[in-house]
C-alpha cells in the first residue's frame, strides 16, 4: 500500500522504502510556507496561499522552466517552442521535436500535501494532475496535434503517422516521484486518450513524470549533446518493460517495487548525476553572471 511517507507495506507486514528523499524535500518546501506566513501575505483568508502559490508559479517558476528548456534544447537539429510561440492555440508549456520524436511538456509547480492514506493520496493526484489538469492537458494537446499538425510544427519530411509522441509532466515537489505515482497517472492517461487518436501516430509512448531537478542537474549534458532526449526516454521505456518481464518471472517484493518505478529512479541509475560536472558549465556560468551584479565587492 502506498503511503504519504515513502513507505510500502506488504501483506505480510514487511516494509519497503521507495523514496529516501521525501523527508528532505519537505524541509525545502517549508521555506516557501515560511515566507508566506512571515511576509504579511497571509491575511487569514482561505484563498491567500492559493493566490500566493499561483503568482509564484506565473511570475517565477513557469518562466524559469521555459527559459531553462529554451537554453537547453534550442540548437541545430532540434525544434523547440515555448507556450504560444508557434501558435497561440497551442497550450503546452513546452514543445520539442527531434527528427520524428515529439515531446510535449506540462510543467506543474505544485505542492504534494502530506496525507495518510491511499485514498487521500489518490484524491490529491486526481485534483492536481488529472481531469483538465496535467494528464488531461497532454491528452487534449495530442488530440489537437492529430487534427491540426500544421499549428504545432512544419514537420518537413515527416507525416504525423511517422511521429513518436512523448507526453511528459515536469514537477518540482519530490513527493510526486514516489513509487507508483507515474504508473497511476499513466493508467489515467491511457484511459482518456482515445485509440482512434493514438492510431494517427506511429506510436504514443507512456506518460513520464520528470523532476525539474533531473533536467537542471544534467543541463550541460543535454546542452552539449552528450546525451539526448530520445535515448534518455527510450531507456526509461525499455527498463519499464524489463521490470514488467522480471515481475512476471518472479513475483518477489523487489520486483514488485521495480514494477512501479518512475522516470527519475530509472533514469537516475542509467544517467548518473555527478555534481562537479556542472561547475564551470553553461548553466553554472549563466547563474553566476545573473547574480554577479547583486554581490557586494569585498
What are the secondary-structure elements, in order, as H or E? EEHHEEEHHEHHEEHHHHHH
Are there runs of 5+ residues with pLDDT below 50, and where? 1-5
Which structural class do the helices and strands define? alpha/beta
- The number of distinct helices, counting runs of at least 4 residues, comes to 12
Q: Note the gap between the termini.
A: 55 Å
Gyration radius from CA atoms, angstroms: 20 Å
Number of DSSP E strands: 8
Query: What is the count of distinct domains?
Result: 1
Mean pLDDT: 79
Gross morphology is globular
What fraction, in percent, of the residue positions are helical?
A: 40-55%
The proportion of strand residues reads: 5-15%
Largest sheet: 6 strands, mixed
What's the layout of helices and strands?
Elements: E1 7-9, E2 15-17, H1 22-38, H2 48-73, E3 78-82, E4 94-98, E5 101-108, H3 118-129, H4 135-147, E6 164-171, H5 181-192, H6 195-198, E7 203-204, E8 208-211, H7 212-217, H8 219-223, H9 229-249, H10 253-259, H11 263-270, H12 282-291
Parallel strand pairs: 5-6, 6-7, 6-8
Antiparallel strand pairs: 1-2, 3-4, 4-5
Helix pairs in contact: 4-5, 9-10, 9-11
What does this 3D model show about the protein?
The protein has 298 residues and is of the alpha/beta class. It has one domain (64-294). Helix content is 47%, strand content 13%. It has twelve helices and eight strands. It has helices at 22-38, 48-73, 118-129, 135-147, 181-192, 195-198, 212-217, 219-223, 229-249, 253-259, 263-270, 282-291, and strands spanning 7-9, 15-17, 78-82, 94-98, 101-108, 164-171, 203-204, 208-211. Strands 3, 4, 5, 6, 7 and 8 form a six-stranded mixed beta sheet that branches. Strands 1-2 form a two-stranded antiparallel ribbon.
Amino acid at each position: 500500500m502506498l503511503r504519504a511517507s515513502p513507505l510500502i507495506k506488504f501483506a505480510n507486514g514487511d516494509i519497503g522504502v521507495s523514496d529516501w528523499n521525501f523527508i528532505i524535500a519537505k524541509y525545502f518546501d517549508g521555506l516557501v510556507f515560511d515566507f508566506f506566513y512571515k511576509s504579511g501575505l497571509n491575511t487569514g483568508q482561505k484563498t491567500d496561499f492559493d493566490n500566493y502559490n499561483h503568482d509564484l508559479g506565473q511570475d517565477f517558476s513557469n518562466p524559469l522552466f521555459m527559459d531553462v528548456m529554451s537554453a537547453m534544447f534550442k540548437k541545430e537539429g532540434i525544434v523547440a517552442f515555448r507556450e504560444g510561440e508557434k501558435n497561440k492555440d497551442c497550450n503546452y508549456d513546452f514543445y520539442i521535436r527531434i527528427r520524428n520524436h515529439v515531446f510535449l511538456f506540462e510543467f506543474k509547480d505544485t505542492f504534494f500535501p502530506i496525507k495518510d492514506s491511499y485514498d487521500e493520496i489518490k484524491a490529491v493526484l486526481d485534483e492536481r494532475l488529472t481531469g483538465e489538469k496535467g494528464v488531461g492537458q497532454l491528452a487534449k494537446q495530442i488530440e489537437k496535434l492529430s487534427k491540426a499538425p500544421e499549428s504545432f510544427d512544419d514537420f518537413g519530411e515527416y507525416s504525423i503517422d511517422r511521429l513518436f509522441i512523448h507526453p511528459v509532466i515536469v514537477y518540482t515537489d519530490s513527493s510526486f516521484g514516489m513509487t507508483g505515482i507515474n504508473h497511476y497517472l499513466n493508467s489515467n492517461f491511457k484511459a482518456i486518450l482515445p485509440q482512434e487518436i493514438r492510431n494517427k501516430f506511429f506510436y504514443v509512448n507512456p506518460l513520464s513524470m520528470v523532476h525539474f531537478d533531473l533536467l537542471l542537474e544534467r543541463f550541460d549534458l543535454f546542452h552539449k549533446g552528450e546525451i539526448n532526449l530520445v535515448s534518455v526516454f527510450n531507456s526509461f521505456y525499455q527498463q519499464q518493460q524489463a521490470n514488467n518481464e522480471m515481475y512476471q518471472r518472479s513475483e518477489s517484493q523487489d520486483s514488485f517495487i521495480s514494477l512501479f518505478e518512475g522516470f527519475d529512479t530509472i533514469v537516475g541509475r542509467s544517467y548518473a548525476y555527478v555534481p562537479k560536472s556542472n561547475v564551470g558549465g553553461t548553466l553554472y556560468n549563466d547563474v553566476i553572471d545573473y547574480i554577479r551584479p547583486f554581490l557586494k565587492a569585498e
